[in-house]
Amino acid sequence: MARLQSRQISQLHLYQVLHAVRLSADPLSQAQIGDVTGLSQAAVSSLMRRLLEGGALIEVGARPSLAGGRREREFAINPSHAWVVGVKVALHQITIALSDFAGGVHSTAKLPINAPLTAAALVRLLTREINKFLKTEADSVRQGLAGVGVAMPGFIDSMHGEVLWSPVLKLVAKSNGAAAEPLSASLTEALSVPVFIENDANMLALAEQWFGQAARTANVAVITLEHGLGLGLVINGELYRGHLGMAAELAHLQIEVDGRDCPCGKQGCLETYVSHQAVVRQGVQAGLIKGSDAVKFGEVLTALKALANLARSGNAKARKIFEDQGRLLGQWTGNMVNLLAPQLVLLDGDGTIAADLYEPALRKAMTQALTLPHRNRVQLVVRHQGDEVWARGAASLVLQRLDESAAVVQAVSRHGVDLNTDGLSIGRPSSA
Ligand SMILES: [Zn+2]
Question: What distance in angstroms lies between residue 228's CA and the mean position of ligand 1's atoms?
Answer without folding.
Answer: 9
